[in-house]
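Tutorial handout. Part one gives the primary structure; part two gives the three-dimensional structure as tokens.
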Amino acid sequence: MMLDFQQKRKVRGFLYNRITIGILFLILLIVAHSTWVVYWKKVESEEMMSVSLKDVEALRVRSEDLQYKIDRLATKQGVEEEVRSKFSVAKEDENMVIIVQDESSTSEDVKKSSFWDKIGEFFSKK
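Part two.
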């Protein structure tokens, strides 16, 4: 019985020692810091996963669009439409008209008038 009491007293003396409490507190801080770092890595990885899923969806949509264009170009009509959209060409029995806008007339036709010009026009009309 006496031995148990003395052993308990030694254990209490060791556990309640300031050095032991300090070491336990440092271990607690290290564990808390590690937990905090792991938590933020988890948050960042979830954000990166969300971005990656959006990128995968965009690539899937683009792949479907490209596959549609490839399938369209596999037909004679699709090739003809693509050539007509890219180049100014016509079939042998067709006529083609190209309309060119005169660039000099557009800048001269538009006349900018100031506030005072408008007042002068208003009074000169009467």
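Part three, for discussion. Residues 37 and 96 are 69 Å apart (CA to CA). DSSP finds five helices and no strands in the chain.
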